[in-house]
Every structure is written in structure tokens, then in C-alpha cells.
């Protein structure tokens, strides 16, 4: 029913991990660009560069695709951004499209860029539009990679993506402006989104992917608590809404369950124990579907 284009390159590993955790594992064969997903909703899978995916989805070659919002903006592709999937090359996070200059440049902000400056980038359309808004005429030149290596010898500044800025700093570059922030998106073609049968399948795939995203970094905590210690224990608990409380069969004690951030359980569990919780279980969560 659905054809889907998955990204090759920097987003590939995290995308494959997400689909595996969503119970939609991508199975590669000797034909690396034509893997399969063993799911009745997905009939064709292709691995392509993320730069191309928004265009191919917009043109109807694929019903679904995964690419960055940066490439949707750069290509101007007319697609439906079905869901935000906040992961990048190194895991969860947002990437930034930035304007950077060499460390010893007198430029402090984008407005300081001298007219006629040479700007190297893989995002010429976004870059031109940005400087047009500033009213600064610049010479935008397309970069085929290693963009940071061209400043200052060949170019005066660059526009590129960064997660942490570390690569720019290592190459003696300094960020002077954030042009836009981008996350990975689940994209759909207009025709697929308007088709009732395909739209239902797209929404089901979205539910699985977002369920994994929501569950990342979360655990389920379950514990037994005596009735007279209930308030003390509950006061320690985080919860998405409220903790679930159930009476234990044949006992005056209760079972309490809640969701907590994995990063906090090393502090939380001892506090729960001190407050009166017993038989505390920590259980990994694979999906949270709201």
C-alpha cells in the first residue's frame, strides 16, 4: 500500500533504529538501496539521500519519506509534514543551520557581512533568501562537501548544519547567526494524505514511530505501599498525569505504577524506599501511545 523513502547517510543509523524499535524493522539485502519492511502497510522501501527525498515525495514517487525540515525548506517541496521525529546523527536533538566565519573575522552578526562576500553552502536557496531579507548582496556558491575547509582561503563565510558546533570550532570557525532550526520529519505526499486508505496507514505508522520517540528515556516504576504511607510515597512521584493506584488482592496495601525519566531513577528509587515503598520494580518502556 505505502511506498517509503528512507534517508542514507547521517540520518540512516538513527532511522533504522527507530523503525526497529517501532516493530517495523528494515531488512537489508544484497540490494542495499532496496530493503524491505515486513509489514502489510508498506510495500516498497528505497534508501536515498535526504536532500532528494522531499522532492520525490512531493512528486508522488513515494507516499512517505523521512528527511530533515531543512531539506524541505531548501527544496520548497510541497509535502505534508506528518510528524516531527526529534533525532539527528548522534541521537535525540535539533540541528541548526548556521552562518559561520573564521575566528579572527571582524563580523559579529549576519548584518555585518560585507556586500559581495563569498558564501559557501549546500543550502543555496535558503542562504540567498536569508541575505535577501537582510538586504545584503552576496555571492552564494554551492558546496559539494567539506564546506568548513573552504573558509577563509576560498570563501568568506559558510552556511551549514551543526548539532554541537564542535566541527566548526575545530576548524577555526565561529557561529555568528542561527538561520533556522531543523528536526527530522515524517513526510507524506499530498495525494497519499488525501487518500483515505493510505492516510489511515500513514497515521498508524506515525503512531508507532511517535510511540517510540515518546518512550525514549522513560521507565515504568511499580511498587507496593502500605495504606498509611500512600501520601508520603505519592508526593515523591512524577507522572504524565496521575499515578495508577490499585488495591492488592487480599491485602490492605496498594500497588502504585507511574512513568519516570530514566535519568532520575537513581535519585528517585532511594527516596521512594525511604518514603515507604516496597518491592519496587523498574521496567523499560518501548512505546508510549497517547
CATH superfamily of the largest domain: Periplasmic binding protein-like II
Domains, number: 3
- Low-pLDDT residue spans: none
CATH class of the largest domain: Alpha Beta
Radius of gyration: 24 Å
Structural description of this entry:
The chain is α+β, with helices and mostly antiparallel strands. The chain folds into 3 domains: about 1-90 and about 185-215, D-Maltodextrin-Binding Protein, domain 2 (3-Layer(aba) Sandwich), CATH 3.40.190; about 95-180, Periplasmic binding protein-like II (D-Maltodextrin-Binding Protein, domain 2, 3-Layer(aba) Sandwich); about 220-285, Alpha-Beta Plaits. It has 9 helices and 18 strands. It has helices at about 10-20, 55-60, 70-75, 125-135, 165-170, 190-195, 195-215, 230-235, 265-275; strands at about 1-5, 25, 35, 40-50, 65-70, 80-85, 85-90, 90, 95-100, 120, 140, 155-160, 175-180, 185-190, 220-225, 245, 255-260, 275-285. The strands form 5 sheets. A 5-stranded mixed β-sheet has the order 4-1-5-14-6. A 5-stranded mixed β-sheet has the order 11-10-12-9-13.
Which characteristics define this entry?
290 residues, alpha+beta, 9 helices, five-stranded mixed sheet, D-Maltodextrin-Binding Protein, domain 2, Alpha-Beta Plaits, 3 domains
Give a quick summary of the entry:
With 290 residues, the chain is of the alpha+beta class. It folds into 3 domains: 2-92 and 183-215, Periplasmic binding protein-like II (D-Maltodextrin-Binding Protein, domain 2); 95-182, D-Maltodextrin-Binding Protein, domain 2, CATH 3.40.190; 218-284, Alpha-Beta Plaits (2-Layer Sandwich), CATH 3.30.70. 28% of the residues lie in helices and 33% in strands.
